[in-house]
Design brief:
about 160 residues; alpha+beta; OB fold (Dihydrolipoamide Acetyltransferase, E2P)
């Protein structure tokens, strides 16, 4: 993909990096938070002088994956909106399941390996990202089930109410 115009293609999932599938952001302004356990957002705290601890965090998906087209294998990055299509849940919900079942991320990657997809890829807006971004994804298998459904069934976990 040499130009800035999005490209849509058919591909197969080869592998997913399960070691770092999400990141934390401020639930108010969605600025990235540090990995330490603080829920404090410097930006919101700076702008909210009356209640500096009003900020909380949430997780968003950031999935690094290898996909194969008919001509090559490439590494792409899939952020929250696209990842929710494949996972069928929020990153927080998946993280909570993975806390209870430590191999859930590995198993999720295996469930997605070989999945046929139609993806739209684009370059990052600032142009300095290492990988193209998946801006939309459509599973092509007619019986596709989101990862969270398959994991719940495998682990005998009921859906959140």
């Amino acid at each position: 993909m040499e130009d800035k115009k999005p490209t849509t293609l058919m591909c197969t999932v080869v592998a997913i990096d399960h070691t770092n599938f999400c990141y934390r952001v401020c639930s108010v302004c969605e600025k990235t938070l540090p990995d330490n356990n603080t829920n404090s957002c410097k930006y919101c705290n700076f702008n909210n002088k009356f209640n500096p601890n009003s900020c909380s965090s949430k997780r968003l998906f950031r999935i690094l994956m290898s996909i194969a087209t008919d001509t090559k294998v490439v590494v792409v990055i899939m952020f929250d909106r696209a990842a929710r299509v494949l996972f069928g849940c929020s990153a927080d919900e998946f993280f909570d399941l993975a806390k209870l079942h430590p191999f859930a991320a590995v198993v999720a990657g295996r469930f997605l390996e070989g999945e046929m997809l139609r993806v739209t890829l684009s370059k990052s807006k600032n142009g300095n990202a290492q990988h193209d971004r998946v801006v939309s994804v459509v599973p092509l298998m007619s019986g596709f089930r989101p990862v969270i459904e398959t994991l719940r069934e495998s682990y005998g976990v009921r859906a959140r109410s």
